[in-house]
Fold this sequence. Notes:
By secondary structure, this protein is of the alpha/beta class. 41% of the residues lie in helices and 17% in strands. The protein is built from 19 helices and 21 strands. The chain has helices at residues 34-46, 61-74, 88-99, 127-132, 134-142, 160-170, 214-220, 255-266, 272-288, 303-317, 331-340, 373-381, 401-408, 434-451, 482-488, 496-517, 529-554, 558-569, 579-593; strands at residues 50-55, 80-85, 105-106, 122-126, 146-150, 175-180, 195-198, 204-207, 210-212, 226-232, 234-238, 244-248, 295-300, 322-324, 345-348, 361-367, 393-398, 455-459, 462-468, 471-473, 477-478. Strands 10, 13, 14, 15, 16, 17, 19, 20 and 21 form a nine-stranded mixed beta sheet that branches. The chain has a seven-stranded parallel beta sheet with strand order 3-4-2-5-6-1-9. Residues 1-29, 414-452 and 518-531 have low confidence and may be disordered.
Amino acid sequence: MTGPQRVPGTSAAEHLPPAFPERAAWGTAGKLRAWQAEALDQYFRTEPRDFLAVATPGAGKTTFALRLAAELLAQHKVDRVTVVAPTEHLKTQWADAAGRVGIRLDPRFKNSQGRHGAGYHGVAVTYAQVAAKPVLHHNRTAAARTLVILDEIHHAGDSLSWGDAIREAFEPARRRLSLTGTPFRSDTSPIPFVEYAPDDEGIRISQSDYSYGYARALKDGVVRPVIFMTYSGQMRWRTKTGDEMTALLGAEATKDIHAQAWRTALDPKGEWIPAVLTAADRRLTEVRRTVPDAGGLVIATDQETARAYAKRLRELTGEPVTVVLSDEAGASRRIEEFQESDRRWMVAVRMVSEGVDVPRLAVGVYATSSSTPLFFAQAIGRFVRARKRGETASIFLPSVPILLALANALEAERDHALDRRPDPEDDAEVSFDDEALDRANAAESASDDLLGSFEALDAQASFDRVLFDGGEFGAGGAVGSEDELDFIGLPGLLDPDQVTALLRTRQAEQTKRRTNGSGADGPAPAVTDELEHRALKEERTQLQSLVGAWARRTGKPHGTIHVELRPAGGGPPVAQASRAQIQARIQKLQAWFVGRR
């Protein structure tokens, strides 16, 4: 560095307009967003040693952090910067972003080097790298006035040893900036450098210094609104004992049955995944009419299914599909190539679940069995980054109760609790982190032993409904039907208010179609036995889907709703009811949805 030891790219701080006296240096963005300016104001009023900023995915945490770092470097309040990130890919992403503002970070630094190379202002490392040699990082931090940026700080608590290592490594730091965009952990291990205070019930809750949630970001136009397209269907599988089991995806059932039906739906050899991928690709085509470079992402459970999904998409679109299997050599390059291209689809396992920046992603398929709030929020966070006004994100979900609940609670803000509240239902605990997910998977394996080994036999798909802004729209329908295409064909550029208005219109049109189609003239004329059987199966599926939606809306058990419906058409339970009786119950439920009891 030459001259009066200015950090390259930060001397422009002298020339910022009077509205920003002694403000963060130019470079990370042409104009600060309101929340970033507000958070910087708050920081520089007191300049604390520790500062925790919670901001929804896509809001611009990196920009905020680098503006703050550039200012502290320019004012000679720190001499070095260390960024700690969850993955190797994010190290490179941070180094690239920092380089654009004149802060040179070495993302290839290895513990064996001992010190970073000449010409760098610091390093970008992973939490695992720090935990492997905390004394080294302690000495590096103590050797110079260091700003440590802890990206997605909840990872510092992935185990007791990790938390202790992070504390040891960065205790000497002159300044520490902690960032997160997702709910904190479900365990009671304290996160390093986070302050906790008791709430009204004496539960110690994490205290953020600045918080910017999804609801506020949506109102500000910083993030996109998310439309969830949900799909149900009849699932059939076989246990080790040879018993065949059948269940409607999302219908009231035990936890084991839900898990098995969900796994059956995700089986690449069944019909559920191809039907949902086809629907998602149609949605992507619609979005690309107004957003030509819009891309899609399928999040898979494991490498084998990821490859199978990619093969399906190649056959469907006739185009290459980017496959990212893990945080391995070449994975970062493939993600970057996808971002710079106009390819339609990428399929990944976990690589893009957190922090990876691919702003053109607009359509997603949640085809994974992960169900922790943390993973779900991170996954949805890949789609919400807004580039221009009116862009929307469309996520295709299995109609699984826990996922529907997470989708409906997208705007909820959570904090990390050090103490557990008494819960009379132990199995109702919601998990927030990967360790909890591993425990859940272990429990699922134990239940598999009770049910027998799992073999998916058949997975049919049916359109369930649309979730948006806490509301539910549509009343189900067959894949490829007008009922489904009405919602898949929503324009790609809509403000949130326009989305709500159009969803209500489509729902009203669907209800009118169904009422007219099965009114005074009665059911359709008799057809062949085979077609009659298929029609009855589809109508039972539609009824179960409607019952599930009404249960979510009212909180009533499925069985209670079925009992209330039986007087509408008379007759026995659903399994023995005729088509006319099923149709009468469907009409009754549809009337309930529009306020007619």
